[in-house]
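Deliverable D4.2, example record:
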Amino acid sequence: MQNYNDLSSNEAQFLSVVGVKLQQFNILIQYFEPCWKSYISVYTTTGEYRRTTKKQRKDDVFPDIETMLIFILSYMKNNPLQQTHAAAFNMSQPQANVWIHLLKRILNDALDKAKCIPCRTVEGLNKLLVEGQDVLIDGTERPIPRPGDPEVQKEFYSGKKKPHY
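Output generated by the structure prediction step:
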């Protein structure tokens, strides 16, 4: 099982497995842990209302909160098959499925509290800019359909042909 103690001893390996630097991880855990505790104090892992208080047990799937965060971050970074990810953490695929869906929500809440959620609307971006927030732009090149009208095509294409190798 991949755990925090083993991975944190090698920063390069930690970054390649988890997708964030060790220092960033340690900051994120400060937001993730309260979100987890808040959720698990009210609900079970299956989303039902909790009748008894949650206690740490020896046979819990995750020995600590750090391993739980490594589980979801490594899943988000590497996008493995659930069966493969489950095997890496000594659990069944159905268990992994439940944990992935639950921890994605918890991670999203933690990122929201840390003010690290990407802005997805123009209004949201304008609000951040007015507030003086730092904004990082991460763009993805997306293909657009080629217009059928030759005059409209001239606006989008330079006319240069791609080189043949």
